[in-house]
Amino acid sequence: MTDNNPQNATTLFDDIGGAPTIDRLVEVFYRNMDSMEAVQGIRAMHAADLRPTKAILKLYLAEWLGGPKNYSASRGHPRLRMRHARFPIGPDERDAWLLCMNAALEECIENAMARGMIGKQLAGLADWMRNDPQNAHDKAH
């Protein structure tokens, strides 16, 4: 993965194959959302035309994984919870999102170590995104 020499350092973005892999990951993620019966509740939260949403997620994931900073340059700070506040996100929505994403990771990321690291980080992020009254993240403050 990464090494301690900054001139030779790579990122998860590099390790998984860069933008082409991110593009494929997002396309497969939304294909899963369109095709999995169990996730139709979260699919209904999205517009019929997913092209703008796909473009944003591609920018976000690329930057989040250490790639180009194009998301921040075009949209500013992610403010993910604020941007998703209008949607009810509880354990069921988190799990549905992760079902789609984990299946996409499995299909698109060959490197098992990178896939596991990304999956673990996304699971934490998905849990943090919950805005239901039982979200332990909100009760701690």
From TrEMBL:
Sorted UniProt keywords: Heme, Iron, Metal-binding, Transport
InterPro entries tied to this protein: GlbO/GLB3-like, Globin-like_sf, Globin/Proto, Hemoglobin_trunc
Keyword Transmembrane helix listed: no
GO molecular function: heme binding; metal ion binding; oxygen binding; oxygen carrier activity
One Pfam entry name: Bac_globin
The family this protein is said to belong to: Belongs to the truncated hemoglobin family. Group II subfamily.
This protein's name: Globin
Source organism: Methylocystis heyeri
